Amino acid sequence: MPKQKTEKKRSHKVIVYSTPGCPWCHKAKEYLDDHNIKYTDYDVSDDQEKSQEMVDKSGQMGVPVIDIDGKIIVGFDVEKINSLLGIEGED
């Protein structure tokens, strides 16, 4: 009997802190969407509480800040995103 390939997709908790006018924020969210990764998006230009939460986590004001399972990525860093989400590297 052939072995069945079972692919377990681990659910990750992903939070994106972004602003509407940030091109890298849009790229990061598009990348997550393209890989069917669910995430919560907070507009830190409109939410002081989430803005402060982002600064507390990352130590800075730049966006995007991506929180994957409690690990912080500042900016749109594809290698780190892939590593933390288990996405195979893209050329």
Write a structural description.
By secondary structure, this protein is of the alpha+beta class. The protein has helices at residues 23-34, 48-58, 78-85, and strands spanning 14-18, 40-43, 65-68, 71-74. A 4-stranded mixed beta sheet has the order 2-1-3-4, with helices on both faces. The radius of gyration is 15 Å and the shape is globular.
Any descriptors?
91 residues, alpha+beta, 3 helices
Helix content: 25-40%
| CATH architecture term | 3-Layer(aba) Sandwich
Give a short account of the largest sheet: 4 strands, mixed
Q: Please tally the helical runs, counting DSSP H or I stretches of 4 or more residues.
A: 3
Categorize the overall geometry: globular
Unreliable spans are 2-8
User: What's the CATH C level?
Assistant: Alpha Beta
Rg computed from alpha carbons, rounded to a whole number of angstroms: 15 Å
Written as H for each helix and E for each strand, in order along the chain, the element string is EHEHEEH
Mean residue pLDDT: 90
Give a count of the beta strands, DSSP E runs of length 2 or more: 4
Oligomer: single chain
Structural domains: how many? 1
Look at the structure and name the CATH superfamily: Glutaredoxin
* CATH domain fold name: Glutaredoxin
Distance linking N and C termini: 36 Å
Helix and strand composition category: alpha+beta
Strand order of the largest sheet: 2-1-3-4
Q: Name the beta content range.
A: 15-25%
